Fold this sequence. Notes:
Blueprint (H helix, E strand, L loop, with lengths): L5 E7 L9 H8 L7 H15 L5 H19 L4 E7 L6 H10 L4 E6 L9 H14 L3 E5 L6 H17 L6 E8 L12 H16 L4 E6 L13 H10 L4 E5 L8 H4 L1 H12 L3 E4 L7 H14 L6
Parallel strand pairs: 1-2, 1-3, 3-4, 5-6, 5-7, 7-8
Helix pairs in contact: 3-11, 4-5, 6-7, 6-11, 8-10
Amino acid sequence: MPKRTIGVLVMSYGTPESMDGIEEYYTHIRRGHAPTPEQLAELTGRYDAVVGGVFPLRENTNRQVAGLQAVLDRMAPERYVCYQGLKHARPYIEDGVESMAADGIKEAIGIVLAPHYSVMSVGSYVKRAREKAEALGIAMRFVESYHLHPKLIEALTDRVSHGLEGLNAVKPVKVLFSAHSLPEKIREMNDPYEQQLLETSAAVAAGAGAADWQFTWQSAGRTREPWLGPDILDTLQEVKGNGYEGVLVAPVGFVSDHLEVLYDLDIEAKSAAKELGMVLERIEMLNTDILYMETLAESVVSEDDWQHE
């Protein structure tokens, strides 16, 4: 009996394809409400500060999807075909599912380029993909988190160890693990997001021998409701007040170079640290690290119950 082809929907937040696409992207994030001229100018300025009008950020996701496909091909030739689905940019999540259906895919697995589960993040991707898959007659399973996968921890541990070596001349140094903040209300929902992030951070700190660490948040949305804190800019002031000369930021909630890393950390947080008289360095992002690609591939394969039928 020939092996069935399984679709793999690789989902991520999305980023515009060019500077010209920023307004459409921002409008989608705002659920159809166009940003004010001031809001658009601010976001455009952040992208311009990072990419200088050229737009390589989208390629990060494309390369990750291609990298995952390559590892899956090695593990199980001709069994899996990857499709891309983005939350706020084309191809949207629904577009990815439609592409599967057009290719005759009947069984699929969804995975998000984010290791930690929250109903407000990964859960929203899963909801959209599941609804579209059901409408098109595709049976779809989902990898909801992989925050303690041994190869993910290994890749992050290597980066923290390397980062600390680079700060060897600075003492004392605090390791700050970070992730994208979410509204505080997730705590009332017993959402696992915060706990999973702490578990990843503790595992990586232990592996790197980094006893002096803490967790902080970044990139909170600008809404009236309270978001998880403290924000990294506030944490930097606290750390400086406690006598630290340097920080190594490990944004374990993110898996590639994009705006929240290249602007919020590399420009904004680094500038704040400099004003405080501290050195701030950041670990390299996972991007297409083979250990991360294998983390994704092994998570997909372990979700593939069809192979055991």
